[in-house]
Design goal:
Helix content: 40-55%
Radius of gyration: 18 Å
Order of helices and strands: HHHEEHEHEHHHEHHE
Shape: globular
Number of strands: 6
Strand content: 5-15%
CATH class of the domain at 67-206: Alpha Beta
Distance between the termini: 33 Å
CATH topology of the domain at 67-206: Rossmann fold
CATH superfamily of the domain at 67-206: Nitrogenase molybdenum iron protein domain
Largest sheet: 6 strands, mixed
Structural class: alpha/beta
CATH architecture of the domain at 67-206: 3-Layer(aba) Sandwich
Length: 211
């Protein structure tokens, strides 16, 4: 629901009478996103810059891996939409794994899929991260106000322990670009706050669960 099909782009170019080399990117994992950055570099004559960028991103990812390796896995449900509830898909479950979590109701590389609230209740996640597709933190926080009205959600260990978060999804999770590594660092802090520095303001907030 957040992506424009390649065919639509080509149809629009035909209507405009414009001819262009359309580079279609369809990443499903973190590695796919990094590979696509290199592909964009190749197609734009910026291979050297793209390689340097990917090297820096990999260094940051390796630092997160060094910190979370060996820590207990945290059962984590990335919630991508509210009505109906959708699990996080594509690279998001991969980010959860790399952040030291165990994805709940989703698998790395798979599409986001619709769920029922009883599914979420039965899965009993320890952490819930609300990341509505395309929403920044302010917009997502407004949407998150409705979470408290979901009985099944309030019965989860995540809600009971106060481990429900809302994030700037459009900047760090919805779009397959370099900032997904910021999303990885953010998630790693959410799951293991004792081991990593707190993200900069404006990226994540805790959802009130005490009333």
């Amino acid at each position: 629901m957040c992506a424009v099909p390649t065919g639509d782009v080509e149809d629009a170019l035909n209507v405009l009478g414009c001819h262009a080399d359309v580079l279609s990117l369809d990443p499903h994992t973190v590695e796919d996103v990094l590979d696509d950055i290199l592909r964009v570099g190749e197609h734009t004559g910026r291979s050297a810059e793209a390689n340097r960028l990917v090297d820096r991103l990999r260094e940051r990812m390796a630092l997160v891996d060094d910190v979370v390796r060996g820590l207990p896995l945290v059962r984590t449900f990335p919630l991508e939409w509210l009505e109906p509830p959708f699990s996080g898909g594509h690279w998001v479950p991969d980010l959860v794994v790399r952040a030291g979590g165990e994805p709940v109701l989703c698998e790395p590389g798979e599409h986001s899929r619709p769920l029922r609230w009883p599914d979420v209740e039965a899965a009993a996640p320890d952490v819930i991260v609300f990341m509505p597709c395309g929403y920044d933190l302010a917009e997502a926080t407004k949407e998150a106000a409705a979470l408290g009205g979901v009985d099944a959600l309030r019965s989860t260990p995540a809600w009971q322990s106060g481990h429900v978060y809302v994030v700037d999804a459009t900047s760090y999770f919805s779009r397959p670009g370099p900032r997904i590594v910021d999303g990885l660092e953010l998630l790693a802090w959410v799951l293991h706050p004792e081991a990593l520095p707190e993200p900069a303001p404006g990226r994540v907030a805790r959802v009130p669960t005490d009333g």
